[in-house]
Amino acid sequence: MSDDPPATEDTPPAGSSSASHTFRAQAVLAGTGIDLGALGAAERPGGAPLVVELIGALDGLGIAGFPATGLGAGRGTTGVAVLFRYGAVVFFGVSPAGVSEYLRQIGPHVRQPLGAADRETEGLEIRVGGARETFEGNVLVLADVTLEKLQVVADIMAKSVSLAHHERNIERQFERIEPFAVNLDHWGRGGRAAHELLQHLGTALLAEHRVVAGARVDDAPELLWDHPELERIWARLRDEFEIRERFAALHGKLALISRTAETALELLQNRRALRVEYAIVGLIVFEIFLTLLQWWLSGRVG
């Protein structure tokens, strides 16, 4: 990492959070998981995300005066990355080049990394210096910058990109499973149909597990237990990114895919069982025919 960039006229002095300034937050889904322990997260409490200070070459814009205590104190401008174990990284005050470079650095610790074209991203402009926390258009206004507030923003943005990733995958599953629902006769002719249905069912169950158990989209962060004053801004962000509505819609689609796959599998199994029964009946009829034929032949000989 290189030395800190020189201060400009737009950069307030270190420790000063009263002057109005703007920085950008960007969330990226890097993969299906991140080994936070390998990145120095052993001291984290519970499921708290890992917060990393990015300075020097990785600091493109910075967060002026962040924070009064803790990360970046006395540095003037500091970029921050918040990492989540389910694969999301949220950057604050970091340039696009810095984002790409840091994702490259942590690449060996990302499980099933996504290519640049497949990564889900989400951006948000943040302005510091308002009287209270609110939204003005598409800009989040904060009274001041603290580590806890950035963690709250990161929690919602990370959940948003995770939801977006699964929303896109589930749409693909809908397109692929539609032939089963429209034309079961065609797909019921061989074992390939059952194999593909099981794949769809497994994909749906895995996606639901990652959203519910991994990202815990429907849960509030543990941070709010220690900082209840941040619950209002967290709820506002959750509503702004429509987390609950998107989660409910995704859950409904996953349930529909599961029901469709299970119903189609049941029909296929019933058809196979029916064919087995037909075969058994045919064998019985054939055996009866052979017995009658033997009696008839023995009667003629006698």
Short account of what is shown:
The chain is α+β, with helices and mostly antiparallel strands and 302 residues long.
Secondary structure topology:
Layout: E1 21-29, E2 33-34, E3 50-54, E4 63-64, E5 77-83, E6 88-92, H1 96-106, E7 110-111, E8 121-128, E9 134-136, E10 139-142, H2 147-182, H3 184-187, H4 191-214, H5 223-226, H6 231-240, H7 243-301
Parallel strand pairs: 8-10
Antiparallel strand pairs: 1-6, 1-8, 2-7, 3-5, 4-5, 5-6, 9-10
Helix pairs in contact: 2-4, 2-7, 4-7
Written overview of the protein:
The protein is α+β, with helices and mostly antiparallel strands and 302 residues long. It folds into two domains: 21-143, no CATH class; 159-300. It has helices spanning 96-106, 147-182, 184-187, 191-214, 223-226, 231-240, 243-301; strands spanning 21-29, 33-34, 50-54, 63-64, 77-83, 88-92, 110-111, 121-128, 134-136, 139-142. Strands 1, 3, 4, 5, 6, 8, 9 and 10 form an eight-stranded mixed sheet that branches. Strands 2-7 form a two-stranded antiparallel ribbon. The radius of gyration is 29 Å and the shape is elongated.
Helix content: 40-55%
- How many structural units, i.e. domains? 2
Average per-residue pLDDT, rounded, comes to 75
The termini sit apart by 106 Å
Number of helices: 7
Shape assignment: elongated
Order of helices and strands: EEEEEEHEEEEHHHHHH
Radius of gyration: 29 Å
The biggest beta sheet is recorded as: 8 strands, mixed
Number of beta-strand segments: 10
Low-confidence stretches: 1-18, 67-76
Helix/strand class: alpha+beta
Oligomeric state of the chains in view: single chain
Report the portion of residues in β strands.
15-25%
